[in-house]
Amino acid sequence: MRYLLKGGLLYGESPADVLIEDGRIVKVGDVSEGADEVIDLKGAYVLPALVDPHVHAREPGQEYKEDLHSVSQAAAVGGYAHIAVMPNTSPPVDRPEVLRGLKAKAETLPVRMHFVAAITKGREGKELVEMGLLKEEGAVAFSDDGSWVSNPAVMFNALLYASHLGLPVITHAEVPELSKGFAHYDPINLKYGMKFRMPLAEELAVYRDVRMAEITGAHIHIAHVSAKESLEVIGTFRERGVRVTVEVTPHHLLFSTEKIPFYDPVFRVNPPIRSEEDRRALVEALKAGFIDFVATDHAPHAPYEKEAPLTDALPGIEGLETAFSALYTHLVETGEVSLKDLVSLMSGRPARFLGVSVAIEEGREANLFVFDPKAEWRVKEEDLASKSRNNPFLGEVLRGRVILTFAKGSLAHRR
Ligand SMILES: [Zn+2]
Asked: Which domain holds residue 108?
């Protein structure tokens, strides 16, 4: 099968046609050859496919929220060709057999899936998994995401083994004893003894894990950074040469407690949406190249699990389908971040983290997406490919839309 993508702008800059034959990019530039299908892009942007190293697919065990098939559909709609899924499933991915089963299922899916294995058995924070066997089975990293590994001896050993294996450890850095509440710390209500998820909880957890990475020589990756103090800690250790990478989510970049209705459970997430000062610090760190990449932390939940009082609603925000348009609307169109940088933060840089390539070059497998920067669309429940609806952009009009995605060499989504 030969596809000719005609009249697009490569990286949003230079006009170039792209000829794809049997899953490979065979020509980029002025193409005069024919094709089985010619798709007129009318000046839309041809961009390397997005890569998300932090996704919750909920399979096995919670397929009523999402499953490998629905999450890969949502990813394709969002312009993604590679996603890494987290192991906090039921059972968790803490044994090679579980990973093997998921890998077999993922083979036929439209996007390429990578698997993060748990750090501890049952994600209980007590006993390490067989890290070597899980690496042999294809695990790309280790994480007890959703929980921090509280026991320092267990985390220390995990980092030691991970450094020998050459794989990163991804930490959900929140000290649980300081994260008993459901919202960002608020100095007014703290006086009345209310519990919060304090930025200090993140700062301390980041400090311990990064310091241990320094001693063990491991690669530590900080998931979904949210507090400005954490950035300071990371900066200090980076200057000392520690291998510490960090991701930020679209929701922590775009929302702050000052700007969201406090009672709306769709915004309940761990770590919580923080202050405008924190949000600004994250955006500035992103602009400065300090943040390694953007990851969605796509965390689907069934409507009844979110449509509850704030204290009872489950934490998590889904967002594979809206991530690129939301950031394009609020950071690129406003002139804060260039299109080139956003693409790098959501494609090239996370691709490097997972050890894959999505470059649009002759000879490579086709992993790319087409983005219409002029499209305006309202995010509607009924249009979401994800099984869940806990998307904070529902009802909002976003600028720019993914209109076509090639993943694993095949046409994975077309609007
Ligand atoms: Zn997490």
From this structure: 49-357
